[in-house]
Amino acid sequence: MSEEKDQLRHKLNKRQSLDSYRSLTLPDPSLIDFSSNDYLGLSRSQELKSEILAAYADMAMAKNGSTGSRLITGTSKLILETEQALARHFHSSSGLVFSSGYMANLAFFSSVPQKHDTLLYDELSHACIKDGARLGTVKKFPFKHNDLDQLEQKLKRATGQIYIACEAVYSMDGDFAPLHDLAALAQHYQARLVVDEAHSTGVFGMNGNGLVNHLGLSDQVFACIYTFGKAMGVHGAFLAGNETLREYLVNFSRPFIYTTAPSDLEVLAMATAVEKVRSSPLLAQKLSDHIQLFIALIEPEHKIIRSESAIQAVLIPGNERVKNASQFLKQKGFDIRPILSPTVKEGEERLRICLHAFNSENEVKEMTLALNAYLSDSLLAKRENF
Description:
Helices cover 44% and strands 14% of the residues. The chain is an alpha/beta fold. The strands form three sheets. A seven-stranded mixed sheet has the order 2-8-7-6-5-3-4, with helices on both faces. 45% of the residues are buried.
């Protein structure tokens, strides 16, 4: 036991020496939020909270917990009706509710692609896509981020049923997948395109039904994973696909079969959040206005991964340097978190700025001006030292 303890401590000490040690901290309510994934402000919406609780109170037979897995006692009339409603909302013929986007991706990629198949995934795809593939038996290969030429070269060599995995909006860079081109390649090579809509659900598309639907590509995508824990302000996920895919997951996906089903309250929150987005179109417009304001104000000489999404990445290589930048902005009253290696590649550490509908125009202006000032001072100091 002592040897095991020493091994664990050794690894922790090494991470501390690399300035990449992680710890849990409470958000500071005195700071202006430019860090959370609450893009539309629905997580903090008292209106949405009241609507969820009122709907829950009206359900006389609602249970506090689901009481079991979906295949035992965890399937309720509510969850079946919600799955049908979500399928219609996301322009899908069928689908399944999951407790999180991570679990939905784990369920799909660990069970659907088979041993003789090939999975080609964008190298910046979320960890849950990669973790799911590791749990399965599929042959898996990354391709360079949004590099269609490299993807096509790998498609030419792929065997079995081919799957292409990507995110609609990438969580660390905030940029978009070239979905039109990916869909065309998938069709040409008879591959199945799978899109994680975690950071586009609620923000893009008619009534927030995602980027795939916004681009009119729903008929060309094999499966989409829509996450409710970000812009939708609640929790859970919906894996959209055809009825055969749904039946297959029910029968063969271990992350679906062996986990406790979401509770009635969680499922009801998902359904209510969809209706809230449907009735609040100005939220997405306000978010879009703030994105355009930030893009207009940020000075062009700084190393920014420019994006039309709510996620704006400011590259500040080095864990210590990016933590210093975050601390500076904290002192100015802004909650902007540093993203350290190994979460991102060494040398690609960054500030991850999340814009929200609830931020005021003045808050966006003041934050961007403070960021410009810090980056300009850092650039000047670097030149003088050089």
